[in-house]
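Table S2 (text version). Query chain:
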Amino acid sequence: MKRRVVVTGLGCVTPVGVGWKDYWDALLSGKNGIGLITHFDTTEFPVKIAGEVDDSTFSDLIEKKDSRRMSRFTQFAIISSKMAVEDSGLDLEKIDPERFGVIMGSGIGGMDTLEEQHRVMLERGPKRVSPNFIPMMISNIAAGQISMMLNAKGPNFTTVTACASSTNAIGEAFRTVARGDADIVISGGAEAAITPLSIAGFSSMKALSTRNDDPERASRPFDKDRDGFVMGEGGAMLIMEELEHALARGAKIYAEMVGFGAASDAYHITAPHPEGKGAQKAMELAIKDAGITPDDVDYINAHGTSTYYNDMLETLAINNTFKDHAKKLCVSSTKSMTGHLLGAAGAAEAIAAILAIYDDKVPPTMNCFDPDEKCDLDYVPLKFKEKKVKYALSNSLGFGGHNATIAFGKYHK
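Corresponding structure-token output:
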């Protein structure tokens, strides 16, 4: 019998807010975090917009001497982790460090460090490449840094499944606690890929919106005029805790994690399955794992990237999974406000799903002015909705055919 797992702490750094309260308020108010790129000169780039995190909102949350030895994605992970631990009320002196794990997700890792040190080598020679280059760049280093900061000596690893990375991480954290390998796991994701090479690469794929003259309305999931996703950056972390452990210390409980499902399209390196089969299977597995029925689900935080095929085929997968109940669901994409945080998207969106349950409010899909005729669900357009949310899913779909769904429920004794 698997142990019950609850969420007791939340922390995030996003383009619309730092800390879960500011983030949630921003989502409910429809605040947009997308603007012109400031990280580098975009003169020669066809895409000039992204969802950047304002440095002034987090620079005082990390020591400068530490930040100089960390890629930007690790900084986001560290800050989000500090916030989640503080929010949870955990006393790190009173818990067993060997029962405390760290499971992170990142699709790309330290791309900024890779590009910077490549320039150094080309301009100044190989001997001038920093000795910190490799341990700053590799995707798993954020999990390692978090474990050292928190003295967490339990299971520690990083999942890399493109845009499903942090959803897979949270799913594995859930399973780790449920099967008894740890009592607490801090889990989530971080990404900082608004760099010249990343933007150039995604631009060459024609995956990004080029609505440069109207950044705030560029990310428009499910809208018939969508023209691609908008890159975002940030980090989000959750404290996943065994129920009795949480109750024993009087922890606040936001929600219970009840299910996880993962499946592969086995179809194409970038395109989703033409019938949405992988996404459908992931949702079906998460629902089965939760011990509920499709009719029990009230809200889905969709992957909803604002690309033609994703939005249409995720909608198809939802219709095929939920049948008649699909039209009764609320489905929204918070990427309409934050942009696509890639490997961190699943964790940020998991927080939105958790808070929908905790607050009984469903965040909107902004910029969904005129839904595509093949996108026929209730996307909560333009304004949040008051709704009793007992169960919620969060979907993430990644290049390589990776599909992951996590399920949360309102906590009850």
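Notes on Table S2: The chain has a mean pLDDT of 97. Residues 73 and 192 are 5 Å apart (CA to CA).
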